[in-house]
Amino acid sequence: MTDADWTAVRLTAELAGVTTLLLLAVGTPLAWWLARTRSPLKPLWAAVVAMPIVLPPTVLGFYLLLLMGPQGPVGQLTQALGLGRLPFSFGGLVVASVLYSMPFVVQPLQQAFEAVPERALEAAATLRAGPWDRFFTVALPLARPGFVTASVLGFAHTVGEFGVVLMIGGNIPGETRVMSVALYDHVEAAEFADAHRLAAGMVAFALVVLVTLYWVNRPVRHDDEAAR
Amino acid sequence: MKRALIAVALGTTGLVAQAGEVRVAVAANFAGPMARIGEAFTAATGHTLKVSVGATGKFYSQIVAGAPFEVLVAADDETPKRLIAEGHAVNGSRFTYAVGRLVLWSARPGFVDDQGAVLASAKFAHLAIANPKVAPYGRAALEVMAARGLREALQARLVTGESIAQAHQFALTGNAELGFVALSQVAIPDRPVTGSYWLVPPSLYGEIRQDAVLLKAGEKNDAAKALLDHLKSASAKSVIQAYGYGS
Contacts of residue A87 in chain B, CB cutoff 8 Å? Predict the structure, then answer.
């Protein structure tokens, strides 16, 4: 692999790492709320979170390019705050990736929280555990597999991002040229040997990630039965 | 009258075929003129076009990989030559349909001066170009920067579109204040020019000869041959010139 390709790999890992951490921070309260709320607006918010699964990434990229551009409301806001503009920057990719990978983090968390038995929380409450205590000592440990799944899917999905970064990235080495775009460049330029190295690396990465995920989250029924 | 004569002539030789279809790969800078030329072509012959627009280098990779394009309307002369040499295009079918003109363009009126001096200023954060590895206009843009001695200085401000269409889109949305694009993208006939531009003197970059070629997949398609003939016609030439191409 060339130095430029390694730069793209590092950049991709950095982007996916930052995105996953941000999504866990934002996604945990959001998923908790979605799992517990009886609000009539729940289907709407669940749908908004799920949108990136349904929409082509280029749709998201197109609107982000307009919104974050100099005439767009987000662009005017970031400029007014002295942050400059987001397209063609690492920060812009992070914002886009957070939106794009949102459902892959929020949905597993939401399912894990929904699976936390109400009775466990009630029992904790009768032992005078406050809401924060109940969340951190009861709900979070029970939802652990959901966090593993959410982190892995959020990270992996951001690594695989293409359409969005192609639209708002601008293909800048070391800043916005992530692996998928570097691969696309190699293919366009008919540099198939380089393309193979990156593509095969991604295939291996996806396999390792998924095997690890299934291994960590494998059913542990025997242990449960023994414990009873 | 002429058209009627041709129809009669063809009719007598039994060659007036039913309307056919051509799959044509068109360089992004020529998308606009091709749409107009395609309309006239369909009106004159009844043949319809299936147009794919993109970077010439991308089309090369796709054609080599077996893409079913029948005609390539390229942004350079190298790619058609190479396709012929490698047996993917029909020998003797290549010809220059246009000579590309590069402009430095901004969506903002009055931003680009008519000498291109803005290029040396600090008034912009991003300069959009087409990917030089796959798009001749991107290579030409690098040559212009080098000719002005700004190649190194501008490196950090470059944003690269996968084709000239994307470079144009970056500049059009204002996300890049400046972009090197094709004159054909900003000087559209019958429409006022928006923004501001510098028509780069051809002496600053290697001539962009744009060639078209019949691909092997279209060898037996009369509609494909008819399209190439139409590209050489006076009516197509007038459209091509109206978009600011040299010939």
Answer: 170, 175
Structure tokens belonging to residue B77: 């002369």
Handedness of CA B167, B170, B176, B181 (dihedral sign): positive
Is B59 near chain A, with CB under 8 Å?
A: no
A 161-220 residues with CB < 8 A to B: 166, 168, 170-172, 184-185, 187-190
Q: Cα separation of B135 and B116, whole Å?
A: 22
Residue B178, min C-alpha distance to chain A (Å): 13
pLDDT of B3: 54
- Which residues in B24-55 are b (16+ Cβ under 10 Å) and which e? bbbbbbbbbbbebbbeebbeebebebebebbb
The pLDDT > 70 percentage for chain A reads 96
pTM: 0.79
Q: Are B145 and B108 in contact (CB under 8 A)?
A: no
Task: Give the alpha-carbon dihedral of B89, B91, B93, B96, to 10 degrees.
Answer: 90
Residue B12: per-residue pLDDT: 42
Q: Could you report the per-residue pLDDT of B80-129, keeping only the tens digit for each?
A: 999 999 999 999 999 999 999 999 999 999 999 999 999 999 999 999 99
B64 touches chain A (CB under 8 A): yes
Contact between chains at A85 and B160 (C-beta distance less than 8 A): no
Chain A touched by B128 (CB under 8 Å) = yes
Cβ–Cβ pairs < 8 A, chains A and B: 60
- The interface predicted TM-score (ipTM) is 0.70
A119: phi then psi, degrees, rounded to nearest 5: -65, -35
pLDDT one-digit tens code per residue, B207-225? 999 999 999 999 999 999 9
